[in-house]
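User:
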Amino acid sequence: MQQTTLWWLIAGAAVALELVTGTFYLLMLAVGFAAAALAAYAGAGLTTQLVVAGIVGGGSVVSWYFVRKRRGGKNLPASANPNVNQDIGAAVYVDTWRADGTGSTSYRGAQWTVALHDPSAQTSVGTYRVVEVVGNRLLVDKV
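Assistant: Predicted structure:
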């Protein structure tokens, strides 16, 4: 088997493993393996191929790490991430509040329990924005 084919198989395995685990870093390593395959196709020796794979793949991983780190607060839990949960940011009308600080609302055809995201805030009937979904409870802030 030629070295080029081997590098492409390794890159494909990295992509397949990434699909199973969901880590974007394996895609960056696959880019390094693909660069090594191109180096092998160009006739570079095994040492050069390994160096190319290490520099391109490792450099991609380090670059992606700093991109993610610079984004900072965007790493929200799934219960509060609007990219994961379609309910985050939706407006709901809370028509009743109970003495324990919870309320109820009809949202998407079902009855939901509502609680304030900031427990020290004042409860009143009106429109609220969903901030987080915890189980079957909507945590809301006043609009």
